[in-house]
Design goal:
By secondary structure, the chain is mainly alpha-helical. 74% of the residues lie in helices and 0% in strands. Helix 3 (23-36) packs parallel to helix 6, helix 9 (113-127) runs antiparallel to helix 10 (131-143) and helix 10 packs antiparallel against helix 11 (149-164). It is globular. It starts with a helix and ends with a helix.
Length: 165
């Protein structure tokens, strides 16, 4: 389970671990199902239990990203700002690349274009040698409306140059 929660595992992956999931594994499985359904009120209802998963726990990153998901999903800038704090904590402890994607989206909802840009630059640094991550970065840049056009063009040129090798 430690290896599974440290990655971008989804509910179906956890279900394959067995029907007897307990504790944090069961909580994560339930929360991921709610996230996939965009059921933000129900995911919010699990926030206290997800928050009880401390930084030393192998599921901390996953729990933090789930706690951030409902905040971003509400579309409320103040909730998105809370999500940035949650994600920053997880990122500082080595959260996967997807946490940076989520952080960029949170910054967009919070109305923080500088945060969007810094997230994208960090993604660029982490994804430098990974064509799938670089393509994911290009896709995200196309989706983010608050990215200043000049910055979008500069980043796109960098990423495309990396993809060409």
């Amino acid at each position: 389970l430690r290896r599974a929660v440290g990655s971008t595992v989804r509910p179906a992956d956890l279900a394959a671990l067995g029907p007897g999931l307990e504790g944090s594994a069961r909580l994560l499985s339930e929360a991921w199902q709610l996230e996939d359904a965009a059921d933000w009120p129900e995911l919010r209802a699990l926030d206290g239990r997800l928050a009880s998963i401390g930084a030393a726990h192998p599921a901390f990153s996953a729990a933090s990203r789930l706690r951030a998901a409902w905040r971003i999903g509400t579309g409320d800038p103040s909730r998105a700002s809370e999500a940035i704090g949650l994600l920053d904590g997880a990122i500082a402890l080595g959260a996967p690349f997807d946490a940076l994607v989520q952080r960029a989206r949170a910054c967009e909802v919070a109305g923080l274009p500088a945060g969007v840009v810094s997230s994208l630059h960090e993604m660029l640094g982490r994804g430098r040698r990974s064509p799938p991550r670089l393509r994911q970065l290009l896709q995200l840049m196309n989706e983010l409306e608050s990215l200043p056009p000049g910055e979008r063009d500069r980043l796109r040129a960098q990423v495309q140059g990396m993809l060409r090798g």
